[in-house]
Amino acid sequence: MSDPVATPVTVTSHEHRGGTVAVLTMDHGENRWNTSFSRAFDSAIDEVLAIDGPVTMVTASTNEKFFSNGLDLAWITGQSDAEADGGDRRAFNNEVMGLFARLITLPIPTVCAIGGHAFGAGLMIALCHDIRVMREDRGFLCANELELGFAIPEPELALFAHKMSPDAFHQTTVLAKRWTAAEAQAAGIVQDTVPLDRVVEAAIERAEPGDHRLDEGASVRPTCRGHLRAPWPRLPVASPCSLRLRAREDSLEPSVTLCARAGRSCPGRQVRTLRPGATRRRARRSPPLRS
Fold this sequence. Notes:
The chain is of the alpha/beta class. The chain has one domain (9-217): Alpha-Beta Complex (2-enoyl-CoA Hydratase, Chain A, domain 1), CATH 3.90.226.10. The chain is built from ten helices and twelve strands. The protein has helices at 35-49, 73-76, 83-86, 89-104, 121-127, 145-148, 154-163, 166-173, 181-186, 199-207, and strands at 9-16, 19-26, 55-61, 66-68, 110-114, 117-119, 131-135, 141-142, 192-194, 242-246, 253-259, 272-274. The strands form three sheets. Strands 1-2-3-5-7-9 form a six-stranded mixed β-sheet, with helices on both faces. A hairpin with a 6-residue loop joins strand 10 (242-246) and strand 11 (253-259). Helix 1 (35-49) runs parallel beside helix 4 (89-104). It is globular, with a radius of gyration of 18 Å. The termini are far apart. Mean pLDDT is 77; it is low at 1-5 and 215-287.
């Protein structure tokens, strides 16, 4: 059973000459995912986006062993007596997938500070960031659903295919490989590896407004809003793919289609929200990538 925590996710601001680096810190034990934790994370993103002026975001954890240990298994399987502690189980899948879709399409640069193990949903949330900085001496990245007898959800597979090379995707999803920091960096899954006491600091440095190193791992964004104008360059797409993540809640069905494109045009028109009574239309196909 998850221990109740008043503030499982907090936000602190670090002012820099070019803007603000907001550090979103998970502080909920092993940071296992349930509905309550997902909503707290979503609310923290709201707080980050409410900051005036140019802003970037770093996600970190207070736990030196686990960045995030994935799904709250005791809660989701009903072994926890206090459902209120983890929230509504029926709402979890739709809400957490909606959160991941929101994070990968945030209109601000994001950096993930991985100070420990990132398993399952923990790996997924890390990959939703533009840049990943990982502790060099300890910790694994692993999609351990196969080890637990679970199927990897389709949106998670799409995200892995977007963020990983074909070989890394195969090792992650078929072989459930546990990536060390050195292996993850060699495979391009993380961009930097540093000692534990430097993980958050290095992530903040990487996230400082005006740091062009953010270009290297940038993900698809829904629109090129003012947040992405100077001092940041327009962020390029990391790799060609098509990624579709959905989140349903009651009669609403927001549907986010991400289509990575190597061109300079903004993919914002790819994002649609289907409202009650609206007619579903076939998503427009993206033009082929230029060689």
